[in-house]
Task: inverse folding
């Protein structure tokens, strides 16, 4: 088992909705196409599918949160100043 | 009669001294957030230590670093990192470790900490802390990452267990064993997040207290307390999993776990309340700090009773 390859594949499942859907529809076929070794593929056949979907959703929400400005009022002020400078 | 009164008085003094020493040894603090600044500055005597999120300040201008040094001069601080991914099988990025080293150098915190998690792999950023497959290869790589970080920063990190909604596939050992091997192999201390442990135990069908007792409790330096909420499983909303979110109050069973920890761990503990949003009135957070102090004292008292009885 190569943990590093499995971590890469998990990262892809957590971040790419299309890959996740393809994997959930046919885990064995999709895992075989990734080039993972037999032990990793066997591990993926027993994956906690419910947890996988919940984790992927949770990580997607976290990524959205990171995109939001930490201080929206400050961001609004910056936007307002930019708009003002363009007008002038 | 006089002798008996004197003994009673002495015993009373001894209890008071013990309680004082324990209050002095065990500390309770809170995560530094700008939104909580007013409450923190209004109640400095209620807060023994502040935990600062390091990643928020890796690119801080000198003015901000001066402000943090001023803060550290008033209340001891620790630094907490969230993005190194020290439990990756791949090597942790040197630039992130160097950023921590610069911040540690600038602020001289009491300690610094990171998570036992992977946050990226193969160039993909997950965006949050993820539990890696718990394999022998992962344990070795994590120990190598921690050693590298220790050498660059100049001090060993405290390492935090994370919450996970998925039992990582390919794991050959359970979480407690995995954490114990990494802590033992890296000679690092454990930052034990009791809500993370509580959530993982409930989500994967374990008894939280039994799980706690399998962690390396003699290596715990710091404790995190936080809250979360239950979310329904897809396709079966009657089944729920507990999501650690840091925006809810600490649930009562987590204080009970703190009491158990304080009973079994002989070393001083620093307890940090984590709150990242949905901020209540600061009095409510102070109540949670006091509940943590009470939980610690209950555990210490229990340990004393058992020790005296033995």
Result:
């Amino acid at each position: 088992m190569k943990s590093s390859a499995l971590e890469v594949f998990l990262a892809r499942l957590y971040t790419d909705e299309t890959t996740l859907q393809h994997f959930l529809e046919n885990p064995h076929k999709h895992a075989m196409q990734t080039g993972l070794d037999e032990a990793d593929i066997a591990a993926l056949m027993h994956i906690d599918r419910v947890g996988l979907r919940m984790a992927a959703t949770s990580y997607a929400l976290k990524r959205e949160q990171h995109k939001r400005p930490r201080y929206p009022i400050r961001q609004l002020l910056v936007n307002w100043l930019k708009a003002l400078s363009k007008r002038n | 009669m006089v002798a008996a009164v004197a003994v009673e008085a002495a015993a009373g003094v001894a209890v008071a001294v013990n309680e004082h020493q324990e209050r002095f040894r065990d500390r309770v603090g809170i995560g530094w957030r700008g939104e909580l600044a007013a409450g923190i500055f209004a109640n400095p005597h209620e807060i023994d230590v502040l935990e600062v999120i390091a990643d928020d300040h890796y690119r801080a201008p000198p003015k901000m670093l001066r402000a943090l040094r001023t803060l550290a001069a008033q209340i001891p601080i620790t630094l907490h990192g969230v993005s190194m991914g020290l439990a990756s099988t791949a090597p942790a990025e040197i630039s992130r470790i160097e950023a921590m080293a610069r911040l540690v150098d600038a602020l001289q915190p009491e300690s610094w900490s990171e998570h036992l998690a992977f946050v990226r792999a193969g160039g993909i950023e997950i965006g949050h802390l993820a539990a890696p497959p718990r394999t022998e290869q992962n344990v070795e790589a994590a120990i190598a990452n921690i050693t590298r970080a220790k050498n660059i920063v100049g001090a060993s990190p405290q390492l935090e267990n994370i919450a996970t909604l998925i039992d990582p596939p390919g794991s050959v050992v359970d979480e407690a064993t995995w954490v114990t091997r990494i802590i033992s192999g890296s000679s690092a201390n454990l930052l034990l997040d009791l809500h993370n442990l509580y959530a993982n135990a409930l989500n994967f069908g374990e008894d939280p207290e039994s799980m706690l007792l399998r962690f390396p409790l003699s290596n715990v330096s710091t404790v995190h307390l936080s809250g979360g909420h239950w979310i329904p499983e897809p396709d079966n909303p009657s089944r729920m999993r507990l999501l650690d979110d840091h925006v809810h109050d600490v649930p009562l069973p987590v204080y009970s776990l703190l009491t158990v920890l304080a009973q079994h761990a002989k070393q001083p503990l620093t307890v940090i309340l984590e709150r990242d949003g949905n901020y209540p009135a600061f009095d409510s957070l102070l109540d949670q700090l006091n509940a943590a102090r009470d939980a610690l004292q209950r555990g210490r008292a229990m340990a004393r009773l058992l020790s005296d009885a033995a």
Remarks:
- Chain A has six helices and no strands.
- Chain A has a mean pLDDT of 85.
- Chain A touches chain B at residues 1-4, 6-8, 10-12, 14-15, 39-40, 43-44, 46-48, 50-55, 58-60, 62-63, 66 (CB under 8 Å).
